[in-house]
Fold this sequence. Notes:
This protein is α/β, with parallel strands linked by helices. It has helices at 5-13, 29-43, 57-62, 65-72, 93-105, 126-133, 147-159, 167-175, 181-195, 204-208, and strands at residues 2-4, 21-25, 51-56, 81-86, 113-118, 137-141. A six-stranded parallel sheet has the order 1-6-2-5-4-3, with helices on both faces. Helix 5 (93-105) links the parallel strand 4 (81-86) and strand 5.
Amino acid sequence: xxxxxxxxxxxxxxxxxxxxxxxxxxxxxxxxxxxxxxxxxxxxxxxxxxxxxxxxxxxxxxxxxxxxxxxxxxxxxxxxxxxxxxxxxxxxxxxxxxxxxxxxxxxxxxxxxxxxxxxxxxxxxxxxxxxxxxxxxxxxxxxxxxxxxxxxxxxxxxxxxxxxxxxxxxxxxxxxxxxxxxxxxxxxxxxxxxxxxxxxxxxxxxxxx
Length: 209
């Protein structure tokens, strides 16, 4: 199941209940990271905590059981579980493909959910091909934000602090943000911390400061 752009981002915030696994990829790895965080929040029941195990290419190549045992294991405390895999491409595609196909063959096959974060994947990528064809796995192709999306993310972050920002200050701040999502998120977080308890709208001088 392939979703692109806004549909992919919306799915990460409100995933289809039947999807047990998600492959999130894009030119900016920060987009996949944000999608993973949104999925974890969406999958975490109210009043509960999520048990998250993070793995990468090297750890899985050295010991594939970390992936499969992690997917099969049930939390002793009864907490929902997610295996979060960060991969740079098709280095461990065969193992991830095996996991996706087993989970797709039978609903509820694994005890844990699976999130795979990747960078840019070509159409011929084995991992992408399998994820697109799977019925119970979502394949999310993520694209860089446009100016309107970035402005809204800044406003949402400041809204959480109950602070507004003037149009000129917003334009100045967004114009100076780095293109990489993770770096941009860091700058937005700094602005939010600066705004905490300010009790007035942020202006151009605040952004420059």
